[in-house]
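Issue: ligand-bound run for (R)-mevalonate - logging full I/O for the record.

Environment: standard queue, default settings, no custom constraints.

Inputs:
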Amino acid sequence: MVVASAPAKVILFGEHFVVEDKFAIAAAINLRAKVFADFNDSNFISISSDINSPNTIKIPINMIISGDIHGYSPSITPLLLILHEFSFKHHLLDRGVDISIKSEIPMGAGLGSSAAVFVAFSAAILKLYNVKFNLYDVIELASKGESLAHGKPSGIDATISAFGGILLYRRSQGFNRLNVKFNAPIILGITPEHRSTADMVNKVLKLKYKYPSIFNLIYDANDKIVEEAINALISSDINRLGELLNISHGLLSSLGISTLNLERLIYAARNAGAYGAKVTGAGGGGAIIAISNESTVSSILKAINDNGGKAIISYISDYGVNVDECSN
Ligand code: MEV
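Outputs:
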């Protein structure tokens, strides 16, 4: 049996801007999705998942090979597309497989839950069929799922989930790892709203095309923030980093991605002592991040919970995708 796991992410700076080839800084966090895969003696691929509600589907291998993968739920179809792509590229999909997915990452909250599942899933399949692969191969396969799930993703979610740590990312240039120490807690506050990343990305782009001269300035301001944030990270200046998170949130709010619920959580966190707080991910609901020192964590967690959010404490994780073979 093969077990692969991959982390959730937070975008510290630059979500949405990154879609239009601006800079972003993303960090992997210590919440993970796990995928277990093992051969079975049938001609079926069986996928069971605890995401949304527990369910299992069984699909004949020849349907995956021929690409006849329509009519399944939106959380399953991208996985079938990854398998189809794998069979197309490697011609190895010749044995049935039992796959089980378990995730501790809140879904649809801008924390990269789907990318983490796709990355772990891709790594598990490559390993199970004994393909020699590197992290770029994993990202390439996982991106097929991301494209189906999110339209035209920048690629930042799959990249950070595969590599872990803190990355400076630009769509046209790829990434640089930021070798900085950031041990402070990152507090997540999740709102009950559900939204689609593709819809939020399209909403922002529509507004950008309507007001190009204004938006170009806002987009350039993002890159200045990222530049300052790199210096703040290098010098471990958490106060400055917090202020930059607040400024970044102002820009993201001007793109139209904040909501009353997100604002409530952001102000609750700031008033409870956070150095800074902002929406993270696509917005329209989802999650905020707040940074703080250990002494204010409990009051920030309480403030988020008291204001209708679900608070979670997280830490940046250096570990990207991990894959192991084990006996059952
Ligand atoms: C989603 O985590 C981040 C967005 O910038 C979309 C993307 O980069 O693909 C909103």
